[in-house]
Amino acid sequence: MALEFMDKIAKFIPSIKPPARPLSLREKMYWTAVIIGVYFILYNIDAYGVNVAAVSSSLELISIVFAAKIGSVITVGIGPIVLASILLQLINGSGLIKVDLNNVQDKSRFQALQKLLAISIAIVESVIYAVTGFVPVESASFLGIVILQLAIGAISIVFMDELMTKYGITSGINMFIASGVSYAIVAGTAEILIPEAISAIAAGSAAAISNTVLVFAPLFFSIIIFLISIYAYETKVELPLSFEQLRGLGGRLPIPFLYVSVLPVILASALELSMTVWFRFLAGVKGSLAGLAKFIAFYQPVGTATGGTSLQLTGGITYLISPSFPLPYSAAYGGVGGYANYFNFLLTQTSRLYLPAGGFILVPEWVHAIIYTLVLIGLCIVFGKFWIEMTGQSPKNVAEQLGDQGWQIPGFRRDPRIVENVLNRYIPTVTVLGSIFVGLLAAVATLTGAMGTGMGILLTVGIIYMVYQQLEQERLFDTYPILDKLTK
Description:
This protein is mainly α. The protein has helices spanning 6-9, 25-43, 60-65, 79-94, 104-131, 143-167, 172-203, 208-215, 217-234, 263-278, 290-296, 317-320, 339-348, 365-390, 395-405, 416-423, 427-447, 454-479, 481-486, and strands at residues 236-243, 250-256, 298-303, 309-315, 350-355, 359-364, 407-408. Strand 5 and strand 6 (359-364) form a beta hairpin. The longest helix has 32 residues, at 172-203. The radius of gyration is 24 Å and the shape is globular.
């Protein structure tokens, strides 16, 4: 199916016009600062009618991955943008729609459809969040106004992302995630770790020093993940290149270890976390489908700090593939009281998995940790391989691009098929290994309770690295404008 039908619909979808002239790096920096400023204003505005005190502390990872703050007007965050992208890429890859992303008109239609789908998902998720109790509403009379606020906030993020893409340094998704993670690390250290450390020292026991060190373990894990991520981004394979028309002119084609960056783990995490929200409606299913609903996702009402109740995912397949683990902080900050209690929880606690043919069985939490890790890695591999095909980074596409630009690999004929065979030795392997690495690192970091979440740190390092590369390129383009013409 072609996308010609979007020509009429696109006229009614608000759009941000691109700048009339190329923006300088300084102007892009100004726009980026303004957009991030607006994002943090929305981040700190609680939605009217939401019982913020009843928001569960276990939702930190969802907040990080979706660049959101549960209970604020941007509770939905970037979820609609990411999910719209996933759905359309899957549909495009399956052949249900025919889109040539190298064609300007087709690309414009595809982007309009993606924006329309993101806005639609934003509205639907706003309803789901409020109606199912994911966002604790003070009373039924506030339900409509809460849904309206969440929808407006989510749609605002959609357009802020578009504005950042056209006027800022990088995409809004990247900047919002990086800003949220940075804020979480700084705020968490100041509001949680430092007060805990002071309490440990004030206790004056013989274990005061060791207890103080353990208090800062989440921050230490964050630093370790940060350093490992930087090292991984710097690791690459370089293939020699020569320019056919200018003998003696050579170069190198870098194939980074993280060839698809952190995109696989973003998409995989967004899918896993979205499932925990989507399936909340299964909590009310009765009759012949009740057993299947419990098998997929088992929700139970739990008490809140304000005396009310809310639905919490406590079992089922969805629970086993989700990062639903407690935080190893003090119980006063919503954790389980330190790493000793945290690891004891993993070794001794169980969740319930309902089997339609045999009733409930108990699944140890350490099995949950293994299943979550393996599924996350598997999804990262799938999305990694899928993404290089959809974004023109496959060996075939890269070989064609090199041929069009006049580059060839020394010692091989200048034939795209030959170059493709050479690239096939590296790109597929690097894609799989890189996807496994980011999935495993994110899972391990999440399980160790790193401040800002391991997922958030991994995403932030990747985003900072991409922004750094873009800033380097922008400086070259500002200094040598002719380079910009040569690359178009």
